[in-house]
Structures are given as structure tokens and as C-alpha cells.
Amino acid sequence: MSSLKIAAAIHPPVVVAVREYDGRRDKEAVEELERRCEVGQPGKPALVTDLMGDPVARVRNFSSHIMLVAEHGNGREIVGVIRGCIKTVTSGKLRSNESPIYVKLAYILGLRVSSSHRRFGIATKLVQELEGWCKQNGAEYAYMATECSNKPSLSLFTQKNNYVKFRNPTVLVQPVHGHYKSLPSDIAIVRVPPNLAETMYHALFSNSEFFPKDIDVLLHNKLNLGTFVAFPKRDISNWNPEKGDLPSSFSICSIWNTKEVFRLQLKGVSALTHAVCMGTRVVDSMFPWLKIPSIPNVFKNFGFYFLYGLHMEGEDGPRLMKTLCKFVHNMARNDRGCRVVVAEVGQMDPVREAIPHWRKFSWDEDIWCVKKLQEDIKNKNCDDNWLKSSSVSHSKIIFVDPRDL
Asked: Is domain 3-168+367-404 in CATH 3.40.50.2300, yes or no?
């Protein structure tokens, strides 16, 4: 018997129907499917995601979004799910008049297939159906993000669906300790209103990659906790951003509250690890003046703050960014249920070295894969050569949209 026939005998064809998610009848089945899929790798801890009763929560903050489900059998069992959204972002290149070049980009996330129905091509069908919706809605490119260790996901997208590895940002995670971090007395931290933050971000990120055209929507979202700027107090007379006047040294970032959308939980950890982590918290609470870096309780549902729009300038820039991150840590310390602060930046972004983080909680390489959807793009605003820059980035700066989480 040929290998093809053997494979067919082991994995007979499975017919599934892909349709749009219907919250009235699909909610419970999708939640159960995702609970079964969040098992991680055998023998290793796994982060389990709780979407807090709203399966569409991760894409709802985009004006153009969809969620698809795959049904199997006469009982119409839901065996797969995928989410997608479309946004307009910068490509990292500028026109001759210095205006940014934008592309219409689809983001694919939340792909899950029941363990009993894997290796039947269901994931590929879901991806292809979602790509069809993205094309119909004008997306010129599609991209997805995954950890470098997620070999099945990389194989699905790069080998079966013709995506290419494009960018490798770094994810930096800082635990929220039981004590507050002291802030330097010579540094001022100012909260800027959304309209002013929008102007500043357009000026700072116009030549970066993935900067969203609807940054105003992002900054006015209820999940955005504010945009903050740090600068030396001696330069306070130079702080007049309405006129475009900024100090020679400053740092800026915005804060996104993910815990209102989804919660995480670490499972599969040994009893000894549980005890050690609890011990660090007990010691930290008893002797806060020692400022012992404790490990927060990540074994129960927790949320996190995500830092985005991180930028620094000037000789004091790194110190100002570190101070700004301490300020955010203290905000998270006051927010029960927020146990880590997360940032994701380009590997070559100078701000990377100034962001406090724990190496054991962070990872150096997230992988973003991109595919060109429209082969005959007629949109003059589209950067048709974006994929050709996959080996060398036009910009060291990648703007990570918190809505993509």
C-alpha cells in the first residue's frame, strides 16, 4: 500500500463547513473548545486564556473584524475557530514629500482546532476562508504572530499557506511586586490628553512599521489608561508640546488595560514552584523596605498592563524611560488583579535596553509572518515592495498595537 493510501486510511477526509460566528448559539461551544485547546506542551507550564465570556473580545476593538467557526457532522459540532481584523498601518517607508506610506493589513489570531479533529486540514481551511473575507474587505496583506517555539503554527502558515517570516520583536515582562518603586525627585511625569498624544505619536512614529492610521481611536478607547511623558524638571520651561516644543530629553508611552478584555492563568506548575513563589510574596510583604523582587500570584486569573508607543530621546532618554516604567509599575501595584507589565518592541529598537524586565518571564523572539493577499494591487497608496524588505527592516521601530493581543 502506498504511503498516500496509508495516510488516507489513517486520516480519512473530514468535511467541515466554515461560517461566521453566531453569539446566540455558538458561545458555549466555542468557550468549551478553547478550554480544551489551552493545554500547552506536555510536561510544561501553560498560560490559559479566559476571554471573560466574550469570544469576540480580542477583535471587537477594531471596526472591521470577524470570527469564523468550523462545523463537522450532522450534529454540527464546532471543531475549529479563528479570528481576524483589518486595519491600516504604516509600512516604514516615506514618500518623496515625507508622508508615510500606508497599507491595508489583516491580522489573524485565535486559531483553535479540536484535538480530536487535527491533521484533517481544518486549520488550513479556516485560514483560507478568513483570507477570502480579508480580500473582499480590501486587505492587501495579512499577518500573524506566534512564539518561535510554536512549530505547528509556523509550519501551518509558512509551509502550507505561503506566509514568510517578517519581523522578530522582543516581549519584555516585568512582574508587579508587593512594594512600590521609588521615583527620582528630579524627573517630572506628565499625563498628556489623547489629542495631544495623537499629534506626538504621528510625529514620532510616521516612519515606523505597523503604526495604525486610527491612532486616535486607540487613544480614546476606554481600555487606554493614558499617555505619559517623563522629562527632567530642569527642562520644564521647554515643555510646550502644543507648539511643538519638547525637552531635549524625554520618554513617552501609553498604557493599555488588558484585564478588562481577558485574563490569564499559569497552569502545570509543580507544588514546589507554587511554594517558592508564595514565599517571595510573604517575605516582600513583611519586609517591604528590603524591596525583594517577589513573584506575583500568576496561578489564579490575572491581567496585565501593556505598554505601547514607547519612545525616548536625548542623553537622559534611557533613565527617563526606566523611570516611566517604574511609574507604570506603581500604577499596576494599585490595581488589584494586574500582576505583570508587558512591552513588545523591535529587537533593534534603542528603547529595548531601557525597559525593566525579568529574563525568565520574557522571550527574545516573537515571530511575525506576513503574506501578500492582493497580487494585482491597484491601490496607489500600497507599498508593493513591503514583503521584499523581510530580511532588512526599513525601520528599527515596530509599533505594536495593543488591540492585537
From this structure: no
Evaluate whether 3-168+367-404 and 172-354 have a shared fold: yes
pLDDT in tens, the chain (405 residues): 443 343 344 455 568 899 999 999 999 999 888 888 765 554 455 667 777 678 898 898 999 999 999 998 777 899 999 999 999 999 988 787 878 899 999 999 999 999 888 888 999 999 999 999 999 999 999 999 998 888 899 999 999 999 999 999 999 999 998 888 999 999 999 999 999 999 999 999 988 999 999 999 999 999 999 999 999 999 988 888 777 788 899 999 999 999 888 888 777 778 887 787 888 888 887 887 777 778 888 888 889 999 999 999 999 999 999 999 999 999 999 998 899 999 999 989 999 999 999 888 888 778 999 999 977 555 555 555 677 655 444 568 999 999 998
Spatial CB neighbours of 32, under 8 Å, sequence gap ≥ 6: none
CATH class, range 172-354: alpha beta
One-letter amino acid for residue 286 of the chain: M
How would you classify the pairing of strands 46-50 and 64-72?
unpaired
Rg (CA), the chain: 23
Q: Domain boundaries in the chain?
A: 3-168+367-404, 172-354
> How many degrees, rounded to 5, is the angle at CA 210 between CA 209 and CA 215?
120
Q: Which helix H or strand E contains 317, and what residues bound it?
A: helix 317-333
Please name the amino acid found at residue 87: K
- Give the phi and the psi of residue 170 in degrees, each rounded to 5: -110, 135
Whether 373 and 130 have beta carbons less than 8 Å apart is answered as no
